[in-house]
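Field: sequence (string)
Field: structure_tokens (string)

Example rows 1 and 2, in order.
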Amino acid sequence: MASQNSGASSRSWSRSMFGVDGSAALTLNAGMILQKRLPYDVSTPRRLPGVAPFDMADWLQVDEAYAGQMAERVRLLSERRTDVLRLDPDAKAAAGELLDLVLAHLPEGFSREGERIFCPDGRVVEADRSDPLGTLGVIVQEDLCLMQPRDGVHVLTGAVLCFPASWLLSEKFLRPLVGIHDPVKVYDEGLAKRVQRLFDGLQPGRPLWRYNLLNYDDPALFQPRSENARRPEVDQETAPFTRSERQCLVRLPQTGAVVFSIHTYIVAR
């Protein structure tokens, strides 16, 4: 739930806990931004698409890598904005609704005074209603994608995507689900139909989540790669880092858009 306490003591506590005044986070160590552990059990794989319900109070997460990840997000949005943010003009209403929803569900460590958001790392962000995705990109760790139904399929109409795992927002923007998952081998026709039914049936207030898991040689958060580019061979047994995404699906009640949020975890094995 959002914290409404805007006192100095609350902000001081947040700065210490999330790696600004203290050393809780394994961040910015030789350029690496790491979490200590994954916050969910990955020992028993789920059958694809592997979704489960969750409480909206648990939607947005703040972890020990908050300060490091947010510094990287601020940098990317400043230096490479067109690579990490896209919004179709017809999706502006959905983006505005998403901003309102996130501000209503800010987790512990945040506080708010009107349009001013006090973040866990000590920054103060002024909500810019003319740039809802840009505002969200410097407040929460989650990447946020908007999927909207067009001609019977859900299309990516907007996103702030600072931490892509081997894909390019520019290539996937305005594509349907099938096109977004190309060239993922396991995303066959059967799985595509199940995922589309999942999106069609998602109800406001009844969100779903899943995770993915791969081992990486490179711990970088920003890993854009064209779908036509050759992918590096990674030995899943010996790669030194595990990268996992906590992926959530949330239906916006007013515009009907589906929010696909991605919280990226990278831990040393």
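Row 2 begins here:
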Amino acid sequence: VDRAEQAVRVLAARPEFDEVALYGKRVHVVAENIAALQPLIHDVLTDAGIHVDTMLVIPPSLEDVFIAKIREEMRKKESG
């Protein structure tokens, strides 16, 4: 995307995404069923005037899995 920092802010404001972060010049979005959310990501960014070059679905890294587990445990503690 062009304007990656703005893209992170726009996407991070959406409840559909668990995590949105900047990795170099790329925007990394984590969510359940991310492949199904690709059209939404494209539309949200386009509506914000941000050009999307390419989108790829990649397998979660070990760090992604670790963070997801930590967040899951935190949610469990907060809710009960």
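free_text_note (row 2): The mean pLDDT is 92.
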